[in-house]
Amino acid sequence: MPISPSKRRLSGGVELIGSRSAEVRVWAPRCRRVELVIDNGESHELTRDEEGTFEATVAGVSAGSRYWFRLDGDRLRPDPVSRFQPDGPHGPSEVVDPNAFTWTDQAWAGVRPEGQVLYEMHVGTFTTAGTWAAAAQELEALADLGITVIEMMPVGDFAGRFGWGYDGVNLYAPTRLYGRPDDLRAFVDRAHAIGLGVILDVVYNHLGPDGNYLEEFAREYFTDRYTNDWGRAINFEDCEPARAYFVENAGYWIDEFHFDGLRFDATQDVKDASREHVLASMARRAREAAGEKRIYLIAENEPQETKVVRRAAEGGYGLDALWNDDYHHTAVVALTGRREAYYTDYTGSVAELIACAKYGYLYQGQWYVWQKKRRGTPGLDLPSHAFVAYIENHDQVANSAFGRRLHQLSSPARYRAITALTLLGPATPLLFQGQEFASSAPFLFFADHRDELREPIRNGRREFLSQFASVSDPAVGPSMPSPVDEVTFQKCKLDLNQRKTHAWAYALHCDLLRLRHDHATIASPERIDGAVLRSTAMALRYFGRSEHYLLIVNLGCDLEMNPAPEPLIAPPGPDGWSLLWSSESIAYGGNGTPPLNQESEWRLPGETAVLLKGSTAHASA
Fold first, then answer.
1. Region 365-389: what's the mean pLDDT?
2. What's the pLDDT band for 1 if we cut at 50, 70, 90?
3. How deeply is 51 buried, as exposed, middle or buried, from its count of CB atoms within 10 A (0-12, 13-18, 19+)?
4. Residue extent(s) of CATH 2.60.40.1180 domains in the chain
5. How far apart are CA 268 and CA 278, in angstroms?
6. For domain 520-620, which architecture applies?
7. In whole numbers, what is the pLDDT of the chain averaged over residues?
8. Would you call 396 helix, strand, or coil by DSSP?
């Protein structure tokens, strides 16, 4: 019996009608015959149309029923639009009623692009249990810290017992490793109840190597027209059902799980020459699914193509923000002094840090030595919140031999100063899980796959890290943790008790985010400008209507401001500057900050950041 599209939330999959029957649809033009096989042993023939869509209305199906599609009478395969894979990608699909969960977030208005503080979370290592239920118990602590949006690493189901999630193959099925679909819904609902948004990292540039059965249904899902960094390129151009499979997925997470947006992984490998780029289609679909609720869309884009965040009328894709690797790279060089591999084109100078604060990307079309080509596109006109700034994220911590955190690779004082610049800077700040308490746990690449993939994964990781000259040290290779070993995964689990045992770091991050929250001019200045004070010292000035703020970051030895011919450090009014905050507070393990004497030369200790506040003359009058 044909099924009306208007009755369905998705164009494919199994959707319940009442409690004991379902509408079944699957696009499988490669197949001559498709049957639905239910866990009670019954099989039901589906009717094929001219475009290769098979469908039927089937009785005896209810929430919790497990089922397969039998293709051409000889092989059982999970549903490409499965909402849950209880035994993983190679097992049967489970019927899920997306309407069964009782939401309490009706008053939640969503997330706007401005004024956010992001927190990247890998659910499997965020807590010892590694589940959505366990993570939900920690949401209040994140809200108290000053986080406003959780950025959850991918959850589409993938093979094995552990992994990052970027090898997902069941794009509609939240992984069984973290719980059931309603556990994810409960996480989002709880986050909304305490004022936190949640966005999901989605991967539309490739599928994983294990458990990907899409091609058995339709060859058109993939194309050899383009190359891809991780596998076969996905076909978005010349087959509407294949394109729709991914576009619908972008709306699915917003609709059925109430996510507040998406973070699109490696968009440079989402290749499409269609009249409307597929990323623009996904953004539009996601916003349609949100209705009146605001959602927040972020992209990772290695070549730094700013069209991603421009409006459709300007030839853009309509997303809200871009990850800024330029800021990360120059900040890491400033912290560690290391310029290996893709850090080659950065000096870590205060001039670079100022440029990031003012303009976002450092490379907007200049020559880039490491890649031997120009990097980036113009973005001088973009607002600060269109860039996401970080000194740690999942990739960058793991892109090293031992996955060590930056506080372990830098001096404590310099680390505090750069943390202040990151969290008080005008861009949208992002923390990677555990960064807020200087976690001692590393974050390494880990992936559990079948035996024949284990050695290629080991070799691939070694090859990737070989770009770093230090890895060629003969002692490094044998000491590197194996990415396919469960011990590597277990090492990456956070010890949340370190919020207390590493109280200095936790207090540092709490205080900085409180300053950002309490002083609107810091988070959203009318104007920001910066100046190099010495070769290792800088100033950022935040201009507001009635108050100004001055952030001075000194990464060198003691700074004596004599002479001081820089107008940006001049006070905005007769009352001068007052010291609001210092990274050398003893609460953070510092040595204290000398008083600010405005009637003589300023002296700022080495490797220190201070925040000053001043009122304009009009406000003081």
1. 97
2. very low
3. exposed
4. 520-620
5. 12
6. Sandwich (2.60)
7. 95
8. helix
CA–CA separation, 490 vs 124, rounded Å?
9
Cα atoms in the Cβ-side hemisphere of radius 13 Å centred on 296: 29
Residue type, 427: A
Strand boundaries in 190-270, DSSP class E: 197-202, 222-223, 233-234, 261-264
Contact 431, 120 (CB under 8 A): yes
- In Å, the largest CA–CA distance within the chain is 89
The burial class, CB within 10 Å (0-12 / 13-18 / 19+), for 573 is middle
| Residues contacting 373, CB < 8 A, separation 6+ | 367
Q: Let me know: does 167 contact 446? Beta carbons within 8 Å.
A: no
Match 């001081």 to its residue by tokens.
Answer: 564
Q: Which of 90-94, 171-175, 229-233, 430-434 has the lowest mean pLDDT?
A: 229-233
User: Which residues, listed in sequence order, are joined to residue 68 by a DSSP beta bridge?
Assistant: 37
Per-residue pLDDT at 261 exceeds 80: yes
Beta-bridge mates of residue 150: 119, 198
Q: Where in the chain is CATH 2.60.40.10?
A: 5-94
Q: How far apart are CA 97 and CA 146, in angstroms?
A: 35
For residue 429, give the nearest of 314, 522, 301 by alpha carbon.
522
Q: Give me the amino acid identity at 422.
A: T
At position 218, the amino acid (one-letter code) is: A
Residues with a catalytic annotation lie at 265, 300
DSSP-derived pairing of the beta strands 233-234 and 296-299: unpaired
Residue 3 confidence (pLDDT) above 60:
no
Question: Where does residue 406 rank: exposed (0-12), middle (13-18), buried (19+ CB within 10 A)?
Answer: buried
The SS3 of residue 175 is coil
Predicted local confidence at residue 288, as pLDDT: 97
> Is pLDDT of 5 > 80?
no
Place of tokens 């039927």: 56
- What proportion of the chain, given as a percentage, has pLDDT over 70? 98
Q: Shortest CA distance to 22 belongs to which of 61, 54, 55?
A: 61
Pairing of strands 43-45, 47-48: unpaired
Helix (H, G, I), strand (E, B) or coil at 447: strand
pLDDT tens string 152-204: 999 999 999 999 999 999 999 999 999 999 999 999 999 999 999 999 999 99
pLDDT above 50 for 4: no
If you ran DSSP here, which 8-state letter would residue 481 be given? P
Q: Please state whether beta strands 387-389 and 321-323 pair in parallel, antiparallel, or not at all (unpaired).
A: parallel
User: Do residues 86 and 115 make contact, with C-beta atoms less than 8 angstroms apart?
Assistant: no
Q: Which is nearest to 304 in space by CA: 233, 383, 366?
A: 366
Instruction: Identify the three-state secondary structure at position 580.
Output: strand
- Which DSSP symbol is given to 238? S
Pairing outcome for strands 296-299 and 261-264: parallel
Pairing relationship of beta strands 321-323 and 296-299 according to DSSP bridges? parallel
DSSP H/E element including 290: helix 278-290
- Tell which wins on pLDDT, 391 or 476: 391
The answer to whether 60 touches 21, Cβ cutoff 8 Å, is yes
b/e for 94-115, b at 16 or more Cβ within 10 A? bbbbbeebeeebeebebbebee
Residue 551: DSSP 8-state: E
Q: Is the pLDDT reported for residue 263 higher than 60?
A: yes
Q: Are 98 and 258 in contact (CB under 8 A)?
A: no
Fold (topology level) of 5-94 = Immunoglobulin-like (2.60.40)
Length, in residues, of the chain: 621
